[in-house]
Amino acid sequence: QQQVKQSPQSLIVQKGGISIINCAYENTAFDYFPWYQQFPGKGPALLIAIRPDVSEKKEGRFTISFNKSAKQFSLHIMDSQPGDSATYFCAGLSSGSARQLTFGSGTQLTVLP
Amino acid sequence: NAGVMQNPRHLVRRRGQEARLRCSPMKGHSHVYWYRQLPEEGLKFMVYLQKENIIDESGMPKERFSAEFPKEGPSILRIQQVVRGDSAAYFCASSPSGTEETQYFGPGTRLLVL
């Protein structure tokens, strides 16, 4: 019940293209869904996050689409840039006192110049 | 405002030795979380602590691993009698409270067990 499944494992996009990363979850106790960006040798950094009562959230070139009934959410990166090349993790945060993040397995994004 | 600090950034230990990983949360944050990242995998929750209390240790291996967050000083993740399978990146995150969703991550400690 704790899994978050993420796809694809790797993604190559041309500069200016749209990058799309998908996640599906099983645990209905999740009440917060962040996306983290991680560069090699660095810690994950929060990119954008959404709550399940919202179907879409946009911040600059980054958009989360959320489908509560399907228990799926996705990250869209518009006008992808080489500087976006990193590993992206989706996650779900448990409600209640056990505030642990459950992460997907990650997507390694490469944006070609 | 300094971010989450972890040290050492890299740690090499031989099998059977002890590893101590330290985490100083962001200023004003009293909640600390430890995660482990194996190569080519996502982060896995280990333990959630407040000052002087372990709130959730459901992700901690039952043996050899322990964590603390004393009233003064950094949080410590301690691994006794390390084995090669303990080689991983260990990340600490902090938040100002248990109701705050955002967890801010440190740069991690890369542990290599020879």
How would you portray this structure in words?
The complex is a heterodimer of chains A (113) and B (114). With 113 residues, chain A is an all-beta fold. Chain A is 0% helix and 58% strand. Chain A contains no helices and 11 strands. In chain A, strands 2, 4, 5, 9, 10 and 11 form a 6-stranded mixed β-sheet that branches. Chain A has a 5-stranded antiparallel β-sheet with strand order 1-3-8-7-6, with no helix packed on it. Chain A starts with a strand and ends with a strand. The relative contact order of chain A is 0.34. Chain B has 114 residues and is mostly beta strands. Helix content of chain B is 0%, strand content 49%. Chain B is built from no helices and 11 strands. Chain B has strands spanning 5-7, 10-13, 19-24, 31-37, 43-50, 53-56, 65-68, 75-79, 88-95, 104-105, 109-113. Chain B is globular. The model of chain B has no long low-confidence stretch (mean pLDDT 93). At the A-B interface, strand 4, strand 5 and strand 10 of A face strand 4, strand 5, strand 9 and strand 10 of B.
Radius of gyration of chain A: 14 Å
The tally of helices of chain B reads 0
End-to-end gap of chain A: 40 Å
Q: SSE string of chain A, helix = H, strand = E? A: EEEEEEEEEEE
